[in-house]
Amino acid sequence: MLYIKNKLTFDKKNVESLAKKYGTPLYCYSFNKLKSNILELKKYFRSFSPLICFAVKSNTNTKILNEIKKFNLGADVVSLGELMKALKAGINEKKIVFSGVGKTSTELNYAIKKNILLINAESKSEILEIEKIAKKKKKIVDIGIRLNPNTDAQTLSQISTGKKENKFGVGEKVFLQLVEYIKRSQNLNLKCLSVHIGSQILNHKPYQNMLKVVDRTIRKSKYKFEYIDLGGGMGIDYEHDNSKLNLKKYSQDIKKFLKIHKSKIIFEPGRSIIGNSAILLTKIVYIKEGDKKDFVILDVAMNDLMRPALYGAKHKIIPLKKSNQKSKKMYEFVGPICESTDTFSTIKKYQKLKEKDFLAICDVGAYGVSLASNYNVRPKPLEILIKNSKVQILKKRQKISELI
Amino acid sequence: MLYIKNKLTFDKKNVESLAKKYGTPLYCYSFNKLKSNILELKKYFRSFSPLICFAVKSNTNTKILNEIKKFNLGADVVSLGELMKALKAGINEKKIVFSGVGKTSTELNYAIKKNILLINAESKSEILEIEKIAKKKKKIVDIGIRLNPNTDAQTLSQISTGKKENKFGVGEKVFLQLVEYIKRSQNLNLKCLSVHIGSQILNHKPYQNMLKVVDRTIRKSKYKFEYIDLGGGMGIDYEHDNSKLNLKKYSQDIKKFLKIHKSKIIFEPGRSIIGNSAILLTKIVYIKEGDKKDFVILDVAMNDLMRPALYGAKHKIIPLKKSNQKSKKMYEFVGPICESTDTFSTIKKYQKLKEKDFLAICDVGAYGVSLASNYNVRPKPLEILIKNSKVQILKKRQKISELI
């Protein structure tokens, strides 16, 4: 993103022209950004060339998945629907891992039929269910066990997943029991230890702690894991203040770890690949003056972008045309939905805005459309991708008639 | 809901049979409950026979809207989609009010074309927009102005809407200016003062305060409003501990108010009509033992019922088969989605459960399906209605193939 003569450009396209041509709300993705994110991850981790499985839950658009696939990435899926989408996008089944605490029998059956790389099981009950299905199908199924490392990811509590009070994985004691169980099973092949401590992590220390716990658990298990799945969680710079996870440090820590444990590393990043590759364009419907602040009422709402309402997450909101005139009052940027939760940000000293101006909400590529709903019978927005200076439709705007 | 021989019944139907026949997750509505809720509201407010406009955002199912219409109710809509749904359900346009802070030009055009009862405007800009359209169409449009009474509804902050820091309505000063403006307009006819202080209100005092502010503002305006729209917000007993809004007291306060101001009252209830008329049936996928608590992993998730994740709201969870055996450990009831937010309740001394048991999540008729999404590529659940001992399909279960 770049302002040229005070006008916002995204992948060299004038953003206001896009908003006018395609209408708002509009999700707009940059192929270049997506590509550079993937290449950056690959660069930092080059020395041990991990299998990078894109976390499909962060963005389920089939065309996006297909673009990601072309960089030889795999997929981390958490449901039958996501698994089917990943396969439809052409992702090789031997690069797909299946996570999640509540995989149903139907889902496991399908995954086993498709011979995916790994089912990462999260409980004894699930392992018994997989074994039962494998026995019936006379198959040996490759699985992992998800360890709950009881590590604080130092992120939002709602997206922290690696503490023992969270529902994910099993503690060390149960983990070791399950290793012994699977070793004796005729139909299960234990290939992987998986962990995932949370999302939007900007400090490498929690990862260090996590690696220590993984190291300890492997030693205790005396088991040789072909794969260590370290999950995802690598945070992005939502605040645009250069707060960034130190990938170099994380990579070095993993290299040290791999000197002891000779396994193949799997990553499950979502946000760090797709998060900052999209902006959400919106038009100001009304500006309502208040005593202490003015309400900037947008045509985009919590149904289109749920993260602020759900997590109190903040996304930068930037004008498509820059000016030097400042507003005297604070602006609260809100959506049109009849809930107080439908609010995006309150900002002081913002540039003076007027009705019908366009704005861009930044970094909405991850958990944007995938969490969107039709609340207030609002159709889902159009999604476009800028690639090689051309605009592709990723997903058509939903018609109201589809909802009536 | 009643346990007969320890088995849960809902409108005299055995609930487990429904869960087995139709599968889970399953939204199950009771016509009798819906009916008795409507009749109760009508009874309490009989002396001034208000126009009751059902808040469509709480439940947008067209068949439900059609049932509600048969009791001569109107609709409170907040978007073009909701307005079209209300009309499709057969609700008379002269019983429809249109609320919302960000009505677009397209939405206003449609509402004006359809000659609905009232557009309740929430800002000066919106009033100017309505006037512009009315002028173009050579029409006189009936409108209301939403007053923000700066009243604390004493409810969850996320669903409190009547304080001046909230985006809704206009303060008294602007309200009075707008009354003067509209009086002089050739194309606007001011018919209504509307207020709405929030949702899930259990204490009648905030309503009393609200009525005081409304009274004061009307006096100051010296305007005769044909309608006073008092909004909705009447709370329901989610905790099942008989906490209830004192409707009698509220009704008496309104009667007192009407002795001074001879207007027709409009209500916009959603939750109090549909909230407790539905249960959400779910099956236990796995039970995972933990140190201090066991995780009961359900096949229903935050995408099916968003209120707990979004507002920290609690819904009672009850077994379909009662037993006296208690679990030694706490149960945390969670969904299968890969977010820590996907959790419903943590309960001590719950009856002992086992995998594949069924449970019912109570009071999900309002803001249940209307807030549902396809997060994690999960299809939306089936909705059924029990009416006259027969089961009607309200909405088919979404097929995964529709999502791929």
What does this structure look like?
Two copies of one chain form a homodimer. Chain A is α/β, with parallel strands linked by helices and 404 residues long. The first copy, chain A, has two domains: 2-29 and 275-403, Lyase, Ornithine Decarboxylase, Chain A, domain 1, CATH 2.40.37.10; 100-267, Alpha-Beta Barrel (TIM Barrel), CATH 3.20.20. The model of chain A has no long low-confidence stretch (mean pLDDT 96). In chain A, helix 5 crosses helix 6 (124-136) and helix 8 runs parallel beside helix 9. Chain A has eleven helices and 20 strands. In chain A, strands 4, 13, 14, 15, 16, 17, 18, 19 and 20 form a nine-stranded mixed β-sheet that branches. Chain A has helices at 15-22, 31-44, 62-69, 80-88, 105-113, 124-136, 172-184, 205-221, 247-260, 271-274, 307-311; strands at 2-4, 7-10, 13-14, 26-30, 51-55, 74-77, 96-98, 118-121, 141-146, 188-194, 227-229, 264-267, 278-288, 293-298, 317-319, 330-334, 343-347, 358-361, 382-387, 390-395. In chain A, helix 9 links the parallel strand 11 and strand 12 (264-267). At the A-B interface, helix 4, helix 6, strand 13, strand 14 and helix 11 of A face helix 4, helix 6, strand 13, strand 14 and helix 11 of B.
